[in-house]
Structure to design on (1184 residues):
């Protein structure tokens, strides 16, 4: 079996040379961060990922989490790993020092989080959900709630969850029916059933802080009548110690196709007297607060696409170097070689590698925009608004495809569970669904982030201008000219499709939504191709300056691959957007 | 849960109007076949698929086959279903009346087999493998072996297997090391281990007839030193009764990601004295004989892509009609409707439907060529040679993508095993691997079927001429003009890529193989698009003639969708072929 080794060189290149880590360290509040410090953090994180999380990933899949009488036992090794994870400070890394965090920039946590997701995606969901809950509390809850809950959550001693979905309220949050009523002492009683609650119950954390969307009596219907409540598993005494068990229970956990290590709970609130909850912020504003968690979570789920593709790649590469099978076409010696030498195995691995690098670059670049926006940069805010659905939607769709491509490298043994390739394939399949399906992301992109922008399309057009500038810059270098041409063509396709979306959204939003997912793919390919082109330009400069680090040769090669094998698909996606809507609706419903 | 209903109208349209069933019934040897007879056969088959095979599919997945001490117990219901399958004559349908078969044309068995694969792909593997073994025996074995084994195999009382793969010999059959030696009485003793033997051991058939590739002492090395042996589980007495147990055993069955109902065996031959085997045909010609089975099996595995996509589609459509979630974009009433009304759900289902129809049309069309070639038509033989790797490789790759698209329709519940969508997604994943991976198919296509043809590219160019003629024909009808333009563009891309393959194969076969899989996708899209265009032309004629069958409207709609959403991708695949080889090899092995 293979061992996960963090791709530190690529991570550092992207952080330092593409995402501008030094700039970000210079922003107010990041004074303690430095390029050197980040390098040692990544080194330490890679050791934790390789040494602690990767070895228990398989047990997470084969044994998984088990629920009996409302008590969840996580997979062998998970509890100890979680303890160590918290003790060594990894849980606290991204959060504000005010509550015990280390306050590291988003771009740094992005690289570290990628390692957790590669090594053990099911495990990584626990700190990810806790992080989302921390964000929502930190931004919207009272000081009293913050002081009482955040320090333990930042440590990781208490984990956190997001409770949105109900049986009849999935993508349609307006249908939420869980109830809350004020008791009169400032607390509320919550009752209802929530499903798909990631890490909703577990034996790793001492307490679990549930953030629950519910309706107050007489609340307006729909999205404007939903409030957000903090509902702890154990009530917390004033001195911070744990009090009595709250009236909530894990009714069962789901039997899923993948991420078996992550307990996905059906949570039942208020079967007896009602679960004690605390209002976060104001009444009826819960949906807005929840989006604080959602945006955080969406970029992080996009990163799962990167992480799982990287891990699947490493596993397939290990096999492709080990497995000897057949002579190589065109090799007259007839010598049998590792299958990495077979052209199509080479193509599969190159495909996974190049596309994973493009996704990684986009994700870290997006995180840099989060850091800049946090420091007040409006341009960066517009960029991260635009790219959040792309990072989530495109990277997860790619992650599914690439974990499949990696499985294919194994041939017959790829389909055997013991080989381990199946796990990545199965695990990845949830990523295009949770935290908003690909269609939800795509509709956000063409709607809120484009056609319904204050100046429709302004954010996309600003990015396209930068993309075209990069293409023009590369065109001058003969060794990059091929990349430049493909990038320019891709940008033209995206520009045409953007204009079409803006021109048609008002009059025919259905037609635009019929092409929103192809538009998402198109945006991902062009944005990813752009950042790979920028990376190639930097690599070419270094080589021209005499730098002999082979990494730069490799980056040129993956950028060239992405340009010649992925950017040509931009035109096809654009034609689906601009010329395909009528055909989507061509069949009356009864004829399906 | 949904119930499988065979898409009889589409099947009959393709058989009668595209594949030319009446012509095929008129061929010598098919005199007893008629369009009416086929219609009633399909009706009966659909009842068997819906009533017997579909209901046990889930148990096949959840319980699966179990092996204990060499004895395999198949999933609940499988044994009874198999008995009924044989008793009602379904097993015998495709085979020669000489041995008790019904001798129906390939094109008819193709439609019937699709139903088995949709309803229960794991079950359908048993008759499929038996069929391959029957073909090999019927074509190559002595009359004595044929008389002794074929009648029971045609009935299905005895099942059959293909034993190719060994731990060190997967795609590279030249590495086979299983041994056979002549005893002197005309029989042989076989010893060695074979893996991935589909239905290698089971409790459904009374005897299992293994066809085993093995080497005789002093055989030449490589592919030219492999012979094919018939090795029965129970020796057969001269009167046809079962004799003693042969020296072979199922060592274990694999723990696979899908098709749990199909026991995939590790077979151990000759642990004691050696397993008694009978030479099929001549010594050292086993690989050629095995390809008789392989070509049969490849088209049939391609059909699995069709069958699983159809079943996944029906399951997702059922949910999309049932599940109510959210108001529809652009619908000012705000009324919540079934999710089929959401544009992206509509797109997903249209995508699965249109592409499944294209694959079905290609598979039945290919089967019609088999029937014509069987009657001596050399043009049809060239066409089926060309299309066999396309039906196998393209349809299975599509099947994986489409079962994923169907799962996406379910949203969160799609990832829960009880929903059933996961099974199709997991089951489908083997199809691009067994019976030759997609790369093996693609290399066969660009090599043997194109560049190394007697007149290189002649078969492809003949098909392209027909495709261009169809495009020209459609261009005259304004309602089909859009299809015509997209088909013409696709054909141009395929033509360019074909020329490139022929021009470069001799001097740089590695470069051609680096683009063989994109070339396979390209061929599939254009060939599928062509047959959908032909279908649209027929539908348009019927409508113009006053036929009010809504099926023709639906066919026009799916053809239009395929033309506007799939054919545009042809150009991108072609550019991967003609301009992407260098990039595949751009990274030295040590830099992966």
């Amino acid at each position: 079996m293979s061992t996960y080794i963090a791709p530190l060189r690529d991570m550092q290149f992207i952080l330092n040379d593409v995402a501008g880590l030094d700039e970000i360290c210079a922003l107010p509040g990041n004074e303690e961060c430095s390029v050197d410090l980040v390098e040692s953090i990544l080194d330490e994180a890679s050791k934790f990922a390789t040494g602690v999380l990767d070895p228990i990933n398989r047990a997470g899949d084969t044994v998984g989490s088990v629920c009996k009488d409302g008590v969840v036992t996580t997979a062998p090794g998970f509890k100890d790993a979680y303890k160590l994870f918290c003790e060594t400070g990894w849980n606290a890394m991204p959060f504000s020092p005010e509550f015990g965090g280390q306050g590291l920039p988003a771009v740094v946590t992005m690289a570290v989080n990628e390692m957790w997701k590669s090594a053990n995606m099911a495990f990584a969901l626990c700190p990810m959900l806790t992080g989302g809950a921390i964000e929502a509390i930190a931004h919207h809850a009272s000081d009293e709630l913050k002081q009482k809950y955040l320090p333990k959550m930042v440590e990781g001693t208490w984990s956190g969850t997001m409770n949105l979905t109900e049986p009849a309220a999935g993508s349609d949050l307006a249908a939420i029916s869980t109830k809350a009523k004020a008791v009169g002492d400032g607390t509320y009683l919550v009752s209802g059933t929530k499903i798909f609650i990631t890490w909703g119950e577990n034996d790793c954390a001492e307490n679990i802080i549930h953030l629950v969307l519910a309706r107050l009596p007489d609340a307006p219907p729909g999205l404007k009548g939903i409030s957000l409540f903090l509902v702890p598993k154990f009530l917390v005494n004033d001195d911070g110690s744990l009090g009595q068990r709250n009236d909530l229970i894990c009714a069962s956990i789901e039997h899923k196709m993948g991420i078996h290590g992550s307990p996905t709970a059906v949570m039942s609130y208020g079967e007896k007297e009602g679960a004690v909850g605390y209002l976060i912020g104001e009444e009826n504003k819960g949906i807005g607060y929840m989006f604080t968690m959602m945006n955080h979570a969406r970029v992080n789920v996009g990163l799962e696409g990167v992480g799982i593709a990287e891990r699947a790649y490493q596993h397939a590469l290990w096999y492709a170097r080990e497995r000897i099978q057949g002579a190589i076409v065109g090799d007259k010696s007839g010598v049998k070689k590792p299958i990495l030498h077979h052209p199509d195995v080479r193509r599969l691995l190159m495909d996974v590698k190049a596309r994973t690098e493009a996704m990684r670059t986009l994700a870290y670049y997006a995180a840099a925009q989060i850091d800049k926006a946090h420091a007040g940069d409006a341009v960066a805010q517009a960029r991260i608004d635009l790219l959040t659905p792309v990072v989530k939607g495109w990277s997860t769709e790619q992650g599914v495809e690439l974990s499949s491509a990696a499985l294919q490298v194994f041939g017959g043994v790829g389909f055997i569970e013991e080989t381990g390739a199946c796990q990545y394939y199965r695990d990845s399949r949830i990523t295009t669904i949770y935290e908003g399906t690909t269609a939800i992301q795509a509709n956000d992109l063409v709607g809120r982030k484009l056609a319904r922008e204050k100046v429709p399309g302004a954010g996309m057009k600003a990015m396209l201008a930068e993309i075209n500038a990069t293409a023009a810059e590369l065109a001058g270098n003969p060794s990059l000219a091929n990349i430049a041409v493909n990038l320019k063509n891709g940008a033209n396709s995206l520009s045409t499709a953007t204009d079409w979306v803006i021109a048609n959204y008002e009059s025919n939003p259905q037609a635009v939504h019929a092409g929103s997912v192809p538009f998402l793919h198109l945006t991902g390919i062009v944005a990813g191709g752009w950042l790979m082109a920028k990376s190639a330009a930097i690599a070419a400069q270094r080589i021209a300056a005499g730098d002999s680090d082979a990494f730069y040769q490799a980056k040129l090669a993956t950028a060239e691959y992405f340009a010649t094998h992925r950017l040509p698909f931009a035109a096809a996606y654009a034609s689906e957007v601009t010329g395909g809507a009528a055909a989507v609706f061509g069949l009356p419903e009864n004829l399906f």
Notes: Residues 514 and 585 of chain A are 8 Å apart (CA to CA).
